[in-house]
Here is the input.
Amino acid sequence: MKSKYHFKFEDLMIYNRAIDFGESVNDQINTFPKEEMYRLASQFIRAADSLALNIAEGSASSDAQFNRYN
Here is the structure.
């Protein structure tokens, strides 16, 4: 389902690469042994998701605060 909203961070190349990286991590997790699915896999998913989430959060900041993250 396509959203009717568009946010400026969605145009950032680094945000789109972070989304692609998250999808790649999810593909890799499917190859993990079953005993790691709830321990290690969970950490990888949260770490990959946090990349895109931090970029989105930082892009909403003021210019002065955004420059601090660069």
Remarks:
- The mean pLDDT is 84.
- The chain has three helices and no strands.
- Residues 10 and 27 are 22 Å apart (CA to CA).
- The chain has one domain: 9-60.
